[in-house]
Amino acid sequence: MQVSIIVPTYNRGEALRASLENLLQSDSTGLSAVEVIVVDDGSIIPSSGVVESIAVRHPFCLRCIRQPNSGPAAARNTGFRASHGEVVIFIDDDVVGPSDLIRRHVEAHALYPGAVIFGRCLLAPPTPVTSLFTFLNSCGFDSGENASEDFIRADVPASGHLSVERRMFDTIGGVYSGDLSTPAAEEWEFAYRLRQRGIPLLIATQIVATHHQSTELRAICAQQYRHAMGCAEVVRKYPETLNEAALRNILTVNGPVAWSDPPSMVVMKVIKTGLAFGPSRAALLKTVLIGERIGLPEGWLRGLYRTVLGIQFFAGVRDGLQRYAK
Questions:
Q1: Are strands 116-123 and 201-211 parallel, antiparallel or unpaired?
Q2: Which domains are present in the chain?
């Protein structure tokens, strides 16, 4: 069997090397060829230098494609169009997986042909472990953590490492909606389209990789803001995705005040609107950073983290609805 691995990347520099070297040392038992395609999404410093300096052994091959900055969805589609594998695996450029990740994705498609498969991604712990890292791990983002089954149904994919069968998607159109440029937007649209086509979306609970992203508060706030912008972008460009109950709830809670809102929600939206204003948001973030530095008790920090991240998300939805308004 031939497998293709698509790695979209943007301004990762030398940090990209660790992810690629990890991939190229993977167990390739039973695979005739494994092509790894790095799609440089308009990085300021081209990624080709890193890619070309990495040694490759059979059955792996490695190459780099560069495109103007267009977002992760378009980058994944570029890689998909250039690939040849029967199974195509998309892996983020800051994800490091176990040695059997490729083989287990292939085995998953043998067990569940015609499904889209994605695995779990755990945050790499900082040294020393911080209060914020502990808080993030307690938020329930790892949906497959306590699952008793190897494969469970999912509503929305996480694209840290996700695989599809080539035959399921049009080569020209690609897998994702390439006009969605904000992270998370493409995942919501993808989930809606899979449901419309009757394609199962499964999380492989035993395929676990590590996500080497920053767990510093400013970085997590920026991520929350971008993902909220993604929710707004997808509903502006694909209004039909509001049929997804989870997405509809996000827009109800974080969108503008509506006549149907209960009084308590109106009050909360008014308060959040004030805190989401640029200077107020910056002041709130600064307050939490000071709390970290002076060593506030864990319980206090958890409340502050929940507040500041919630306000960042609220602001991202509001700003996204304005930016992507037709």
A1: parallel
A2: 2-215 (3.90.550.10), 218-323 (no CATH)
